[in-house]
Design a protein that fits this description.
By secondary structure, chain A is of the alpha/beta class. Chain A is built from 13 helices and 14 strands. In chain A, strands 8, 9, 10, 11, 12 and 13 form a 6-stranded mixed beta sheet that branches. A 5-stranded mixed beta sheet of chain A has the order 5-1-6-14-7. A 3-stranded antiparallel beta sheet of chain A has the order 2-3-4. Chain B contains 8 helices and no strands. The chains are: A alpha/beta (about 325), B mainly alpha (about 220). At the A-B interface, helix 6, strand 10 and helix 10 of A face helix 3 and helix 7 of B.
Chain lengths: ~325, ~220
């Protein structure tokens, strides 16, 4: 009996300790994503200790472990790490056609995947497509499980604080998708209707920013884990419209021959780019160079035509 | 842990509101699944195979397929089936579908717990009650069920706690419960804190479930 009590006490203390450590640590450094940088720090700080000292006076505000923010080329190992590993790990939500999704044979395919393969060929590495939970994408990136988020990932100011973006490679518009022939022809007709949206998407952000439109709806937008479930709910009458990327909507309607209409009222325009870890500048630059080369060669236009029927890319234009 | 741009003053009330949905799913499921489970248990123990077999098939499907699939099926299925039969626009309300799926699923599990409890009571008690002139209904109500409740409390507490956590699956069909809100807040604020808070919320709910079962066990241990 005494043994048990002692054991229980030890375990309780351990738990409390772990909790405290987990909560207390990051408060010292609230701006950056701390856990990851902690794990990466040793590699990068091993050599350039003296360099850091010379850099310190230049950086006025945050002198401590923020070397990654203003990387001297010498200590940015991001590209070298990918080259050494011989692979670029691409994180994606594998239910996002036509950018990245599973085909009939369960292979991950898509426009983004084809472009990523071409880029990897330029870099001389192999592409590894890693399916992730989209809501946890930043954690996956920051903890080093993936090297980039490349999956119709659109640029936003909020995201810029968390990731470094490549050059944009495609434009995307966000619009309402409705059932055809039910009298909804513009966003004004949506008053008193129910709208669905993918949880955690930029479409959700953009929709919630339109307070006037959202308030005219019958209820708060219904959140779905993915666009496909939202569109299924649109078909079966659970929602009256789905707010999403038109690239995806057009592809879905074309493939499934659904009786849906994409409204021409564009609420938000955005650009697709590739998201990298903060400070992985060398890797970003290498990928940018590869993208530009692919655009000049016409490969990018070729890939776009096979997926969208026309060249929708914007690199070098 | 990543704090990001988090506004706790807004987050906590929102999470409490979403918890209300979680609790609604929890209590409504219990309200319907507990009695339905008992009926299923009797069906499963029936001497008539035309009653026993369908009930067994129902339990096999409910216990043999993922709850997340059952949610999608109950919500979207009727529409597509009705469409095949030429009826368009037939559909359950989102929340109703959610409760139906949870009740069907949990009743199948509850039934087995009831059955284990009922079959653990020696047949001699049944026979003795018969000799004393009690009807079947009286025997169950006065002799069997009170003992059964006592015996099934521990496995029931398992199911109750699993149910609290399973409510997170309701988001699959667009029911905005606690975990959905936490995940949305996580992406909006680029912070893992909402998930940790959600974890604490679920823990507290299950702690209360545990307290309830401990009290019930104490209360019912009158012959010891």
């Amino acid at each position: 009996m005494k043994m048990y009590k002692a054991l229980a006490l030890v375990m309780a203390l351990l738990m409390a300790g772990v909790c405290a450590a987990g909560c207390a640590a990051p408060q010292a450094d609230p701006t950056a994503a701390p856990t990851v940088e902690a794990t990466e720090a040793p590699q990068e700080e091993a050599t350039p200790a003296p360099e850091e000292a010379t850099e310190a006076p230049v950086e006025e505000t945050t002198p401590a472990p923020e070397t990654e923010e203003t990387p001297a080329p010498a200590d940015d190992q991001s590209l070298q790490k990918v080259l050494d590993a011989g692979q670029l790990v691409l994180g994606l939500d594998d239910s996002f056609p036509p950018m990245g999704f599973r085909d009939a044979d369960n292979n991950i395919v898509g426009f983004d995947i084809d472009v990523a393969k071409a880029v990897c060929e330029k870099l001389g590495v192999e592409l590894v497509a890693q399916p992730i939970d989209w809501t946890a994408k930043e954690q996956e990136l920051n903890t080093g499980n993936i090297d980039c988020i490349w999956n119709g990932f659109s640029i936003s100011d909020e995201r810029k604080e968390q990731v470094d973006f490549s050059i944009p490679y495609m434009d995307n518009h966000m619009t309402m998708v409705v059932r055809s022939g039910e009298g909804i022809e513009s966003n004004a007709d949506l008053a008193g209707k129910i709208v669905g949206v993918q949880a955690g998407s930029t479409a959700q952000e953009a929709l919630l920013a339109e307070t006037e439109l959202v308030e005219s709806l019958a209820s708060a937008p219904v959140e779905f884990k993915d666009n496909m479930t939202a569109l299924m709910d649109l078909e079966t009458g659970g929602v009256d419209a789905v707010f999403m990327d038109d690239v995806v909507a057009n592809y879905y309607i074309a493939i499934n021959e659904k009786n849906f209409t994409v409204l021409s009222d564009v609420l938000s325009e955005e650009e697709y780019a590739i998201g990298f870890r903060k400070g992985d500048t060398a890797l970003v630059e290498a990928v940018n160079a590869a993208l530009t080369e692919l655009a000049e060669e016409g490969t990018l236009a070729e890939i776009a035509t096979t997926w969208f029927g026309k060249d929708t890319t914007v690199v070098g234009k | 842990m990543n704090y990001g741009n988090l506004d706790l003053a807004k987050l906590i009330p929102n999470m409490l509101e979403a918890s209300a949905v979680t609790l609604e799913v929890f209590f409504l499921t219990l309200l319907f699944a507990l009695p339905l489970g008992l009926l299923v248990a009797f069906g499963r123990m029936s001497r008539h195979r035309f009653l026993r077999w369908p009930v067994q098939a129902y339990q096999a499907v409910m216990r043999g397929t993922p709850l997340i699939l059952q949610l999608l099926f109950v919500y979207f299925g009727p529409f597509y089936i009705a469409q095949e039969m030429g009826i368009t626009g037939f559909k359950f309300d989102r929340f109703t579908a959610c409760i139906v799926a949870f009740v069907l699923n949990y009743a199948a599990y509850f039934a087995e717990i009831y059955r284990a409890g009922i079959e653990s009571i020696p047949v001699g008690q049944m026979e003795a009650a018969k000799v004393l002139g009690m009807t079947r209904w009286q025997t169950y109500r006065r002799i069997i069920i009170p003992q059964v409740i006592k015996r099934i409390l521990p496995p029931m507490s398992n199911e109750f706690m699993t149910l609290v956590k399973d409510t997170a699956l309701a988001q699959t069909i667009g029911v905005a419960e606690l975990f959905r809100l936490a995940q949305t807040a996580q992406t909006q604020a680029f912070s893992t804190v909402p998930l940790v808070i959600a974890g604490v919320f679920y823990f507290v709910m299950n702690y209360l479930v545990g307290v309830f079962f401990n009290l019930a066990e104490k209360k019912l241990s009158y012959y010891r």
